[in-house]
Amino acid sequence: MDAITDALLTASRALVAVAARSLAAVDDDVTLPQYRALVVLASHGPRSAGELSDALGVHPSTATRLCDRIVAKGLVDRGVASDSRREVTIALSDEGRRIVAAVTERRRVEIEQIVERIPQRHRRSMIAALAAFAHAAGEVPQDSWLGWP
Predict the structure, then answer these.
(1) DSSP per-residue string spanning 43-90
(2) Is residue 128 helix, strand or coil?
């Protein structure tokens, strides 16, 4: 188990670097935590502030401050829940959706370049292993985001 954990830690450092470079190339004013909130909204749809804080694993007051910042940047919109006028919902704006799409595309290109350097004989086993890892982590498959194919 230690070898798997160590290998995933190393791979995750590489993937975080790819994500950071991709985000900086698209919008250097959006932080990684803000971008993560945009991804949660892109993959799960509008959320209450409480649901968003749970999904991000942060204190509700931290999520509220984060939302204030990304609302001010025009990346999300606040609205009223359809079933409770007192509950505020957070939804991705068109600009937020554009940023998620652009960052995802840049990440895809860079990851494809990395995968091309992996010997062909290792690639098929990577698919199953990485899919199992993402599933165990509760990640939603990207093809379900924003209606992307």
Answers:
(1) HH-SEEHHHHHHHHTS-HHHHHHHHHHHHHTTSEEEEE-SS-TT-EEE
(2) helix
Q: d(Cα 2, Cα 82) in Å, to the nearest integer?
A: 47
Measured distance CA(123)–CA(121) in Å, rounded? 6
Consecutive 10-residue averages of pLDDT for the chain (149 residues): 91 94 93 94 91 93 94 93 76 96 96 95 91 86 52
Which residue has 């959706």 as its token pair?
Answer: 97
Q: Strand 88-92 relative to strand 76-80: parallel, antiparallel, unpaired?
A: antiparallel
**So what's the pLDDT on residue 138?**
83
Distance CA 86, CA 94 (A): 25
Per the CB < 8 A criterion, the answer to whether 100 and 57 are in contact is: no
Backbone angles phi, psi at 5, to 5 degrees: -60, -45
Q: What does the pLDDT read at residue 143?
A: 58
Looking at residue 90, its amino acid is I
CA–CA dist 83, 85 (Å, integer) = 7
Write the DSSP symbol of residue 145: S
CB 38 within 8 A of CB 100: yes
CA-nearest of 7, 2, 6 to 122 is 7
